[in-house]
């Protein structure tokens, strides 16, 4: 029986070894394939990045060119117009361009509005209202506070009594032990 079992075991080992070699070979091939795929992907990524850079640069150049064109058009189309405010021209064409003297805007209305807005409103009504509410609260809470005060006094008194009883018991036990010690020594 041992021999059959051993033979079986040996067969299984052989099969495993054979398969193991094949698996290793397959793994190596797969690894190579993966590496190739990764290299291809990396190359594609680099190409994509380069294309994106080129596109960005083209957009920037277009924008620059457009801005330059707009600036040139503005310079050609617009020339500064003379505004003669403080100067009395003698030429008739220049007299047409003269700007009438500016009238100062009325500031009085704005000042009045600001002064009215700055006036303090009476706060006394609000303060009186809040004081009344505080008094009402104090009155309502006073009854509850009295009850609580009585309870605390009772609790304090009970604690003091318990302590005194504990001390009396300790004194009694101390006196009793002292009597026993004294009677033993006789």
UniProtKB/TrEMBL annotation:
The keyword NADP does not apply. Keywords: Coiled coil. One of its GO terms (cellular component) is U2-type spliceosomal complex. Residues 1-111 are annotated as: Disordered. Residues 1-11, 72-84 have a biased composition (Basic residues). The keyword 4Fe-4S does not apply. Residues 131-165 form a coiled coil. Residues 26-43, 51-71 have a biased composition (Basic and acidic residues). InterPro entries: mRNA_splic_Cwf18-like. PANTHER family: COILED-COIL DOMAIN-CONTAINING PROTEIN 12 (PTHR31551:SF1), PRE-MRNA-SPLICING FACTOR CWF18 (PTHR31551). This is Coiled-coil domain containing 12. It comes from Nothoprocta perdicaria.
